[in-house]
Specification:
The protein has 4 helices and no strands. It is mainly alpha-helical. It has one domain. The longest helix is centred in the middle third of the chain and has 27 residues.
Length: about 100
């Protein structure tokens, strides 16, 4: 059960930068949020997701196991894959809807 909850949290965090125009859901930007802000926000949300995963590991396993760089590359790649629906929404769905109006 907890792994599915963790994956759902990661999916939601990976799509947050693409679903709104505010930085970290609260900070409005004058000129809007460009791709660099979205990537920075995505990296911060990745760190938050890792912290949540560490919390789950501490709660259910009792220990936090040391990880090598391969773990972080794999989880970052998974996080990028989880953000694909948000990217498609922002860069393909919204422009198509604007053109159809």
């Amino acid at each position: 059960m907890s792994i599915w909850l963790l994956l759902l949290i990661m999916l939601m965090l990976a799509n947050l930068p693409w679903m709104n125009g505010r930085l970290f859901l609260f900070i409005p930007l004058k000129n809007g949020k460009n791709a660099w802000w979205r990537l920075l926000e995505l990296m911060v949300y990745y760190v938050v997701a890792l912290l949540v995963a560490i919390g789950f590991e501490q709660q259910y396993a009792g220990n936090i196991y040391a990880q090598q760089w391969e773990f972080f590359v794999t989880t970052l790649s998974l996080f990028f894959v989880f953000s694909v629906p948000g990217v498609v929404y922002r860069h393909q769905w919204l422009p198509l809807q604007k053109r159809l109006r």
